[in-house]
């Protein structure tokens, strides 16, 4: 028998909205129904919808424009994720770790070489948010921290590749095994990684990133038993 993971309301709302985008074949720039309509159709409250929208916005799936509505921001990742059925969460996370290592070790090296002041400011902001917040809020900040690193590479092709699989990567920040705290022990490595990028030291950035990945792998194997 498989473990039954606890699913939070905002996660279910997020999945419903992604299913809506897929089933209606919405493209970048297309508008979703108004918030009131979504809440009525799904039978959820404003706080649950707000959390779901924040999570999808952090993952670049949608964009919420104040006073105008909710728009699709990116759909490329659906073409890949729709082909992958994940039955064993532990095995899938470990496989995704291998993909992340391949892409992100390059990203941290390039970020260390090419980061501009505005990139470093963005990373620092989300690094502080990771330490200041807890639970879902911290997970979103963590996701944005890594997105800031990709942005700092200055390589639009690398960014495009990452965006195409970002929905798959987002499972790392969406309470794997139903446990929001699973990767809390990796926070110190975020700090040392950021310091290496600030110091423009690509070798140390690679080393600290690999230490972070090793720590996360231990957590996956421990919690996935």
From TrEMBL:
Domain HTH gntR-type: start-end pairs: 7-75
Domain of life: Bacteria
Entry GO MF terms: DNA binding; DNA-binding transcription factor activity
UniProt-listed InterPro entries: GntR_C (IPR011711), TF_FadR/GntR_C (IPR008920), Tscrpt_reg_HTH_GntR (IPR000524), WH-like_DNA-bd_sf (IPR036388), WH_DNA-bd_sf (IPR036390)
CDD domains assigned to the protein according to its UniProt record, in alphabetical order: WHTH_GntR
Keywords assigned: DNA-binding, Transcription, Transcription regulation
Name of protein: FadR family transcriptional regulator
Organism per entry: Cohnella nanjingensis
